[in-house]
Specification:
The protein is an alpha/beta fold and 256 residues long. It has a domain of 62 residues. Helices cover 34% and strands 24% of the residues. The strands form 2 sheets. A 7-stranded mixed sheet has the order 6-7-8-3-9-10-11, sandwiched between helices. It has a 4-stranded antiparallel sheet with strand order 2-1-4-5, with helices on one face. A hairpin with a 4-residue loop joins β9 and β10. α2 packs across α3 and α7 crosses α8. It is globular. It starts with 5 loop residues before the first strand and ends with a strand.
């Protein structure tokens, strides 16, 4: 197997006396669609902040392509990020939102920036939205525009925070299809936080299931196999949305 794209080793994260995860390790392979799962408050979106360098670990390490995770102050980002709300700047047009990282990092002539913006909007099916304001877009269109912006610097890796959150079922399915297409056609590695089971089972290659009570990873692997084959009641409850059963303290986590 090739070297992992992302390696998380002995990670502890939290603030002060609050520990969300303690001494956890996992790897993400190049070309995967990797989901970070768990109940509310377990630290899913916080873990995404650590992976993208917005917060520094209390202990342990995160390495992307063999080097430490970036900080906001150092270097051109090696990945794109779509935040949960889309985080488009309301005072800018959609095209201007996409041009922002190019103008900040690429130092290209205006004609080249415009060409890239148009190409990325076509990639996500928003070729007619360049001159619109974010307020004129539907929720699904805003998410697509945010993904397009995350891809303007041609990253091999993007992070998505709750991409289907707040979308109607049709828009959510369309976004899933877009993620699958980007992964298949461009070889894009996708790391996403989500709680939408249909999306998880449709697009995720592998996942980690975070557990708030134990501040650890409860299970990891193919989410479809975890749903169908895990003998941990907590895992079965999460993936099948059934009532949890009591399990004794001797039960071990499973990698399926």
């Amino acid at each position: 197997m090739n070297a992992p794209l992302i390696t998380v080793k002995d990670l502890t994260m939290g603030w002060g006396d609050l520990i969300l995860l303690e001494d956890v390790s996992f790897e993400i392979q190049r070309g995967e669609i990797f989901a970070i799962l768990g109940a509310s408050g377990c630290g899913k979106s916080t873990l995404l902040r650590y992976l993208t360098g917005l917060d520094e670990p209390m202990a342990g390490s995160i390495r992307i392509e063999g080097v430490g995770a970036p900080t906001l102050e150092v270097g051109r980002p090696a990945f794109g990020v779509m935040f949960q709300s889309g985080a488009l700047f309301g005072s800018m047009t959609v095209g201007e939102n996409l041009a922002l990282p190019l103008n900040e990092w690429a130092r290209l002539p205006p004609a080249a920036v415009s060409a890239i913006v148009r190409a990325k909007l076509r990639l996500v099916g928003l070729q007619d939205s360049e001159h619109q304001q974010p307020s004129e877009l539907s929720g699904g269109m805003k998410k697509r525009a945010a993904i397009a912006r995350a891809m303007t610097l041609e990253p091999d890796l993007i992070f998505l925070d709750e991409p289907s959150s707040g979308l109607d079922p049709v828009s959510a399915v369309e976004l899933d299809e877009l993620i699958l297409t980007l992964n298949a056609d461009l070889g894009l590695t996708v790391v996403l936080v989500t709680h939408e089971l249909p999306s998880i089972f449709k697009i995720a290659t592998r996942c980690v299931l975070l557990d708030r009570p134990t501040r650890s990873i409860l299970a990891w692997g193919d989410p479809r196999l975890l749903r169908d084959e895990s003998d941990l009641s907590e895992v079965h409850h999460f993936f099948n949305r059934t009532s949890p059963e009591h399990t004794g303290p001797g039960r071990e986590r499973k990698d399926v």
